[in-house]
Amino acid sequence: MKKHTQGILAALALLLSGASLAATTDAQQIKQGEYLARAGDCIACHTAPQGKPYAGGLGMATPIGKVYSTNITPDKQHGIGNWSFEDFDKLMRTGVTKQGYTVYPAMPYPSYSRLSEADMRALYAYLMRGVPAAAAPNRASDIPWPLSMRFPLTVWRWVFAPTPAPYTPAAGGDQQLLRGAYLVQGLGHCGACHTARGVGMQEKALTELDSSAYLAGGAAIDGWVAPSLRNEHGGGLARWTEADIAEFLKTGRNSHSASFGAMNDVVAHSMQYMSKDDLSSIAKYLKSLPPANTGAKPFVGDDAVGKALFAGKVDTTGAQLYLNNCAGCHRSDGKGYHKAFPALAGNAVLQTADPTSAINIVLSGGMVPATHTAPSALVMGGYANSLNDQQIADVVSFIQTSWGNHGSKATAAQVAKLRPTSVPVRGTTEASFAPGRSGADPVPPQPRRNEMKQ
Question: How far does the chain reach from its first CA to its final CA, in angstroms?
Fold first, then answer.
């Protein structure tokens, strides 16, 4: 009898130990899934303003109309609560839903198809067991018929989406470099913005093996241009070290530049939460990408303009406007004040033939997001109400071509085209914020509005 009781107790202890181990494993998987959801910036697109996290409803502009992100909480009626892992995996790798239709490529499933099975299962575990269910109905797109028909999306998938296959690192390769490639090409879906698109709205390249178009810069979308992330001059990262890149991703700022537009959301929602090792891996991978624009000239500083401005000598309207409105923060030499007010001299964004981003910053203002490691949300008010189209073109042209910058001049026509769609930086007005003034309270960035980027 005693031996029988001891056997029962031993079996019970073994069961309890197994249950505890399973619970620990499950919790670890959910935690890993939360990290991966951050890395993929899922919340930015699947959360509407003032909406519940991951409950969808965010409108995203496309060339044929607006589509709305879906509810990916575990709600059984409106979300993915009734989806098996196989249903979820199929959507993420092929763009085909449980119901059998193909989603709009606003969801970058060609990139997500590269996830490993372990990471895909962890992401599924987090969304199913780590996110509260939200009974938020999904919203139909605003795309008119017949453009709203789903069949063309299936054809698009056949033509432009790769055969689903998890990323397979090269045997014996640099593990840090391979980790960076996995993050950038997969969950990070950096190419969705930083790679130009073709006539079918497809990314021209999904990896650096496809062509040098990969991460060589995107087109102008919503008043912003996603710059090159390759190790090149003329708008790329040639002047940045790996440490500079990692710092920018973590905080939205470094000694060379500050984030703007949709990149603010990437920093605030995603990159600031990533580990030091992963950010270093991303930086190493980006610096490994050879130049696509091999003819771009390196930035060479020229202090002649700075000395003239400092002495009060101006010979153009643009120079006078800069001295009156910009030099107080960005200085007469264009070097700014380290990580508070970004440098304009040598800024990669100002070395290209497209002045769209510079025009939009002057029109709308800019804000560096508040993060855990850099909590000040530094704000610059816009000049849409105080400068006319020609004046903005003049000052942007001055900035793009001074101190050694190689950018192109702006025109009043370009400003006029952007003005109707410019939106003042959230939480700022020209009356309440002087240009360059730091906001008293950190203001969270708005969710990303457009994943199509074309």
Answer: 77
Per-residue pLDDT tens digits for 91-126: 999 999 999 989 888 889 999 999 999 999 999 999
The answer to whether 400 touches 409, Cβ cutoff 8 Å, is yes
Among 230, 222, 236, which residue's Cα sits nearest to residue 449?
222
pTM of the model: 0.85
DSSP structure string for 66-97: EEEPPP-SS-TTTSSTT--HHHHHHHHHHSB-
| Model pLDDT, residue 439 | 32
**In angstroms, rounded to a whole number, what is the distance separating the alpha carbons of residues 73 and 132?**
7
| Every domain of the chain and the residues it spans | 21-143+150-156, 304-421
**What is the pLDDT at residue 441?**
32
213-243: string of b/e by CB count within 10 Å (b at 16+)? bbbbbbebbbbbbbbbbbbbbbbbbbbbebe
Measured CA to CA, the distance from residue 269 to residue 40 in angstroms comes to 9
Q: How sure is the predictor about 437, in pLDDT bands with cuts at 50, 70 and 90?
A: very low
Residue 222: helix, strand or coil by DSSP? coil
Cα separation values, 179 from 96, 111, 298, Å: 27, 15, 29
Q: Are 430 and 385 in contact (CB under 8 A)?
A: yes
H or E element: which one contains 61?
strand 59-62
Q: Within 13 Å, how many C-alpha atoms sit on residue 246's CB side?
A: 16
- Per-residue confidence band for 431, with pLDDT thresholds at 50, 70 and 90: very low
Q: What is the CA radius of gyration of the chain?
A: 24
What does the block give as tokens for 60?
């995203």
Question: Two tokens at 449?
Answer: 């509005």
Domain 304-421 belongs to what topology? Cytochrome Bc1 Complex; Chain D, domain 2 (1.10.760)
